[in-house]
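Lesson 9: reading folded outputs for more than one chain in a single document. The general rule is that every protein is listed as its sequence immediately followed by its structure tokens, and records are never interleaved. Here is the first one.
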Amino acid sequence: MAGPTETTETTETTGAAGAAGAAGAAAPPYRVALVAFPGIRAFDVAVITEVWGTDRTDRGAPAFDLRRVAADGTTAVPMRGGLALHPDRPLDWLAEADLVVVPGLDDHLTPAPAPVLAALRRAHARGTTVAALCGGAFTLAQAGLLDDRRAITHWRLLDLLRTHHPRVTVVPDALFIEDDRIWTAAGTAAGIDLCLHLVRLAHGAEAAATIARSMVTAPFRTGTQAQFIEHPTHHADRDADALAAVREHALRRLDEPLTVADLAARAGMSPRSFARHFAAATGTTPLRWLLDQRIAAAQKLLERTDLPMPEVARRAGFGSEVTMRQHFAARLATSPRAYRAAFTGGSSPIAR
């Protein structure tokens, strides 16, 4: 991908190939390597396995081939809580992978084995997309893959990453971020966000939504991790409930001309107060959130229907095809027609 992106706006991608191709029935399974070594977090292993290791082809999801890769392809990798991960491939399998994912760490300064670091460098040099969840950014930094690149990790670990890896440009307020085919994610649940986003890039919004529904989680979240740093007060909780109802109202009426003033009135707030509370709850502005939802709605219509472009634009709330095209260019670096054509042609932005 040509340059870094981050999820202060949720469905952002780069390059005309940002419109992912849906795999055809005859396409080979998408190959994902989970990199394992002592010290990796069981939660992140579970997330990776849930997203790419569960067969949901009967519900229309793509076929995946998830492999647990370790320096020794046969020895169990211990994890906290008495758990163990049994690898099924050696490190050289990374050469076969479409995507390499590194779990976070229980101790974020755990040194990864030298063969693992070398294998990660080789994978990235071959053009394979590499992703790390939470403290897995420290592993990529050990490998030198984050030198002079932007990265994110859990907000409590930002200073630690800066201190131990000063060449990394640490971004403080994203849920996940990409720089030169290297993805990093903020803490814990943001790993789920990143995994679903990677599915969305490779296979489309509907595939990601299918997996998200199965996991009973949101297909994507807006905003940044800044929204999770402060503890909410009772007033904030009450405001959040009102804002949630407003967001649900807006989602049911995306084809209508919604304004911030309209949404604020529904929440019983002034536009200024509404915008402030909305940003505190979601990490983004009401207009940016609304645009995210409209782009996501248009993506789904382009993937699932053959509706003409003006009708897609109308249903998604853009008003005109020209406006929709402008927002696709600004946010996805592609056009609606190219997005639809990518799905028809079965192309994918993550190179095999």
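And here is the second record, again sequence then tokens.
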Amino acid sequence: MKILLVRVSSLGDVLHNLPMVADLLRHHPGATIDWVVEEGYTSLVRLNPHVRKIIPWGLRRWRKSLGKADTRAEIKAFFRTLREEEYDVVFDTQGLLKTGIIMGAARTVRGGRKVGLANGSEGSGYEGISRIFHTHSIPLSPRTHAVARGRMVAGAALGYKVDVAPDFGLPAPQAAARPGFLPAEDYAVFFHGTARDAKRWPRENWIALGQALAPMPVLLPWGSPQEQQEAEAMAAGLPNARVLPKLSMMDAVALAQHARLAVGVDTGLTHIAAAFVRPTVEIYCDSPKWKTEGNWSDRIVNLGDLGAPPSASEVIAAARRLLEAR
């Protein structure tokens, strides 16, 4: 069986789609699985050794130069590569017009299926027009967890139950080289940055948490000038904290992978730490916990909820419990 997964973005959504691979191979051990993903996330998918072929989709870059001949040539090359294979099943688990177009362009064998979402989850950017590219549309509860959605779509289409904990197919920390920018000793990482201000946790809470963890080193990554300024302000109140240089995505993944403790708001890198089953505290301030909480291990603690951020004392207590459970 040849299977194509279409999940192009964003970082957290691509991550949450990874357990589909293990499920599919558990029930169809001889299957080959290919994946179309935004080019910036190919290295994340590549961490899963069971994805045979990764087809990069460069829309974020292409849309800036659609009038250029080189860009149009790249787009043609993408669709040519996409159509090199015939698939038994194509899954679109994002449910957007752009992912529907990719699904529509993919080739299937005679009798092959193109399977997608019949509806979106609460607050998602689901676009119903994507259904015109499906041969089968799978309905799910609007409150289905982000990790469960793709898994349940595949299970419904191929006739199996999703009844085991998600397997992201990611390498264990001891199986991966430790980058030189990381300290040799155990460290905590604070994933404090987020694109939406309402999802931020107050600076004074981060400082209180860092002080409670001392003398353990606290590493502070950032992804924008505003987040860098915030990290520097935190570090000014934390002698055990270090502001990191700007990291590539894969360096940030390694940062999560090797952490003794990860604490973060509802953002992709926090979810990556949880997917690696590192001791993780996920903080929810302005997003619903049911949608993305790490619920597959007791090494992950989820605190707060939409409009109800946790206190510093709650997060400190959870962090101490995780560290003591070593």
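What the second record shows: The radius of gyration is 20 Å.
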